[in-house]
Amino acid sequence: GPEAYNEHAIDFTNPIYLFFDILLIAILVYHGFNGLRVIFFDMGWFINEQKYLFILVMLITAILCIIAAYLIWFDVVPFIVKEVAVNP
After folding, report:
1. Is there a contact between 37 and 57 (Cβ–Cβ < 8 Å)?
2. Range of the structural domain that residue 22 is part of
3. Is 1 helix (H, G, I), strand (E, B) or coil?
4. How many folded domains does the chain comprise?
C-alpha cells in the first residue's frame, strides 16, 4: 500500500536511478526521431540528405536530453514520487 510505496519512494531520488531515467529518455527520444527519419526514407523523401538528417536527429536528441537531464537532475519539476511521499 502507500506505506510500502513511501518506504521505497526515496530510492527513486538516488543518483543512479536519475542517471538511468535520463538514459531512458535519451533512448526513447533518439528512437522516436530516428524512426521518423527512416519513415521519410521509406517514402522516398530526403534520400540524398541522409547524412544531414542523421545529424539533425542527433542534435534534437542532444538538446532534448540536456533539457530533460536539467529538469530531472536539478529537481526543477516536482515529481509525483515526492508528492506521494509527503502527502500519503
Report:
1. yes
2. 2-86
3. coil
4. 1
